[in-house]
Design brief:
The protein is of the alpha+beta class. 18% of the residues lie in helices and 40% in strands. A five-stranded mixed β-sheet has the order 3-9-8-5-6, with no helix packed on it. Strands 1-2-4-7 form a four-stranded antiparallel β-sheet, with no helix packed on it.
């Protein structure tokens, strides 16, 4: 292999990885992704009843042998978030993100998940969820170091190329007036 062809191969690989990352980043911050996952969008009327979402087989995460199923419901505002159940075939993370204007924003907290089914997963947050707020649980794989890194751990991607996530709303809670 000549130096020129090695340079071309590595340049292609770097460009390809950068392109995938850019397309994923554009996709995760669009309102369309939130609607795709089957939960209420920012335009839908909010109510204080619990909404349970389960993914169909088509929505279950699947990429390179990974799979995931996620169930979350509306919940009380405060410093803790709850995931009813999550099943992944690899270790990973359940991460709570803020949603504003249909866009996924800051990560507020993460809980490490072992492979398999886990129920009633409690996630301690760095900042309280506000009553009437919109939030998302997004599943991430663990890069092997057992520490959540927003830039090092990658979201689990479903068969349609979207992150495995469920949205929920908050009501009442410690932060209410």
């Amino acid at each position: 292999m000549t130096a020129s062809s090695a340079y071309s191969s590595s340049t292609f690989l770097v460009g390809f990885v950068a392109g995938v990352f850019i397309l994923f980043t554009i996709g995760i911050v669009t309102e369309r992704d939130i609607r795709y996952m089957g939960n209420r969008s920012a335009q839908d009327p909010a109510d204080a009843t619990e909404q349970e979402g389960t993914m169909s087989d088509d929505e279950a995460g699947a990429l390179n042998g990974m799979s995931a199923v996620l169930v979350v419901g509306d919940q009380s505002a405060g410093m803790m978030a709850s995931v009813r159940s999550v099943e992944m075939n690899v270790p990973g993370w359940a991460v709570i993100h803020e949603i504003e204007g249909g866009h996924v924003l800051n990560a507020l907290g993460a809980s490490r998940l072992d492979a398999g089914l886990q129920e009633d997963v409690a996630i301690e947050l760095l900042r309280a969820m506000e009553p009437g707020g919109s939030y998302a649980v997004i599943l991430y794989t663990d890069n092997g170091n057992k520490e959540f890194e927003i830039r090092g751990d990658l979201p689990v991607i479903d068969m349609a190329g979207n992150p495995v996530m469920k949205t929920f709303r908050t009501f009442g809670g410690a932060a209410s007036h």
